[in-house]
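Running this now, will post back.
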Amino acid sequence: RHIYKNEEKFLKEYEEIKKEIKKIEIYNNHLLDNAETLYKALELDSDISRKMEKLYTYAHLNYDSETNNTKYDVNHQKMENLYQKYCELNSYFVPQLLKADIELIKKFKEECPKLERFKMELDDIFRYKGHTLSEVETKLLSKYGNILGQSSEIYNKLTDTDMKFGIIKDSEGNEVEMTESNYSVYLQDRDRKVRKDASDLMYKTDKNFINTIACTYKNFCELQKVEAEVKNFNSSLEESLFHDSVDVSIYENLINSVNEGLEPLYRYY
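Update: finished.
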């Protein structure tokens, strides 16, 4: 209720943003007409993204609190679909920007100082120049956005809704149902028996679904691999680290350093 007072307020803003996202089409093929046009397009995209994030957070948090609640599930799917629709509508944005030389963007910044507000976004877009698909490819990929994300959705549905982990006794002897959400609470309990019971119950239940979980994870990994190849990355690892400007060698060095120092940790446990 700190985000929206009630569902009525959420649905009202949802209907408003459904209409508002169509405005982004105005700038298709006009993005680089002049500095002021670019600023207005970036400002509109930023404003819509902020509102979408607010709507999505509200829907997602309600859904996470009760994954078997039909009303929350419907609102969550509404936001998933709306986000995909917006990705389709503004799919031209980055490819058209990257058709320009960086010098033109610098010139626009001089002509319109307000563009400095979007310096980080623009710098990041041009950093991805060698990994950005064409306008047609980007639009096609955005249409498959929800489908490509199904492995994560299936896994969450399985573990949050369908899987029943059973009952354990807490440190006060009360019987409580363990779930994916409260598992971490009992894993940090002061009572060792509670921690052990929670861990045993979690992995025993996971093992009953081992083939489904493994198949879902395999599908997720294959999608990551294909996406990395399509976007000219050497691996899905390189793509995942590129967002934070982290070189693969730094990641690998971290893994090696941790492995070399595991013996003291083993002794501690």
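Residues 228 and 236 are 5 Å apart (CA to CA). More later if anyone needs it.
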